[in-house]
Amino acid sequence: MTQIEGDSDYMRNSIRTFISYLHNVKKISKNTELSYERDLRKMADYFEAGGKLKVSELDAESLADYVEYLKSQGKKSSTVSRSIASMKAFFQYELDEHVIDEDITGLLKAPKIEKKAPVILTVEETEKLLSQPAGKTDKEIRDKAMLELLYATGIRVTELISMKLEDIDLDKDMVQVTSGGGRHREIPFGKVADDALKNYIGDVRNRMIGEGTEDTLFINCSGSPMSRQGFWKILKYYTRKAGIDVDITPHTLRHSFAAHMVHNGADLHAVQEMMGHSDISSTQIYVKMDDSLRTQYAKAHPRR
Question: What is the pTM of this model?
Answer without folding.
Answer: 0.61
